[in-house]
Amino acid sequence: TAVVPVETAPPEIATIANSDSREDYTRQSLTKFVMPKTGNILVLIWVIGIIAAALRWTAAKFVLRRLIDNCEYATDISLLDQIERERIRAGVRRRVRCRLTDAGLGPATCGIVRPTILLPSNLPNELSHQQIGLILRHELEHIRRWDTLLTVLARIVTAIHWFNPLVYLLSKWL
Fold it and tell me: Whole-prediction pTM value?
């Protein structure tokens, strides 16, 4: 076998050759491999935060999906005609669905690929045609501006930068 001079040996071997005892090498090895560096700990905490944010978002998405699935499609012809007229007036090219909910939820818009307007089920009976038109215009404006997509992007940025309070302020502003 060849003998490697201490000067050209890798640092680990040079440490063994130059140390007074094997305990120094053992202590250095344990420190290097068992004690993680501060940067590694911070990355681990960051990844755990991303996972927690993603789980929270997924749970909220699941609850919303169940709520939408339990809603009835709007079947009132006058309401559907009004939605179609307002959709054309707002310049929305995509087909828009409308569902009625008893969940105590106010008018809302959801869905990127299949935009849906959620209306309280009692709304068509309690408001005038003109008031419903204003609500529909407002919700269709959200669809026209792709606000749901913007919200998804904001949630992704918030999940990645969960540690930054400014991201939460900007997300609320959107």
Answer: 0.70
